[in-house]
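Tokens help. Our protein:
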Amino acid sequence: MSGIMQETPTRSQPDKVVTQPSPTSMWWSYLRDLLPAVLAPFFGIAVALGIIVLILEWQGASPTVAWDYLYQGTLADAAKRADLVSYWMPLAITSFGLVLVYTAGLWNIGVEGQMITGAIGATWAIRLFAEGHFPVDLGLGRPVILVLCVIFAAAGGAAWALVCAVLKTRGGVNEIFGGVALNFIAQTFNMFLISNGGPWQPIGSRATETARFPANAQLPTFEEFRRLSPIPIYVAIGAFVLVAVIMYVSRWGLQLRAMGKNMRSAFLLGVRTERNIYLSMALCGALAGIAGAFRVMAPDVNKLTASPSGGLGFLAILVVLLAGLSTILTPFVSFVFAMLSKGGQSIENGFLWDHDLSLDRSLVRVLQSTVVLMVVLSFGVRNRFFPPRQTLPTDDTDRT
């Protein structure tokens, strides 16, 4: 008997033929994934409008009345449209920064505090270089002072965001809890500065605000629209271009998306996750700080108030989530929310003073929340019944 064992011949299986998809089929697959994602928010808004009509009819009010108040408060004339744009720009700038961190899987709830610290930073720069609190009079002109305000605001917002990032990476504190705590600290510090005889409160004043900023620290405005400045518009366009290049062109954007999918896997593949956390949080905080500066430097404000952010930080979180973390969709979604928020004030006043309606002004919040809820549910339906092809389960026969 031979000591050499003979291998039992086995029938070789035919090799699988891998076919390269044609460009036409690739585009068709891309459109099949894109259409549900694009149509989902419109479907949610349509359903929300239907529910809003039913609510108003139930309360005995015509839906056209609410639309008239919304239109009169936002789009009725050029001055109203300018006010809407002035309100929209800080919201859009903050939203662009949140696209970066949310794509990386970081829940930057502390963006509200970063806007507040940015407003404080801009006010500090004004006090130093425009109001003469600096030990030496540098004789700076208005453009230089405005640039310094933006720099101080960006530094304040970035520093506050980095505190949250360090707490996460070095202290093991989830950014949600760290952000909420830092929001409270920033708001408390702001109130310390401008209330109860604080260092920035005018002597003898009981208002929780600073004195109005001097003329050499005020934003330039359009001749026709004294409440709208071109500088926030330019900064918003620049922020959009910057974030779009990062997300769609740069290698860093690819790394952020990898981190958002799985932070641990991205680290094992060589992505410097800790550095990217610091950079994305700092850039987001800087944009939020600049937006906070524009809030207090707005031509109709020109002072640090008790609520410099006005809740725009939390509103920007909703904008980015409803935009699906898309840089392209963010300006449009932020505009819709700016119109709902700005026009909601007009609707509230109408409900309050129109005796024929007898509606409570809190109904406006119900109507706004209905829009948010329906859009969120529409995205859930889309992910359940029309998931992207790359997330579909694979066949067991293909797991070789």
Q: What stands out?
A: Residues 63-382 form a domain with the ABC transporter involved in vitamin B12 uptake, BtuC fold (CATH 1.10.3470). Residues 1-10, 390-400 have pLDDT under 50 and may be disordered. Residues 23-58 form the longest helix (36 residues).
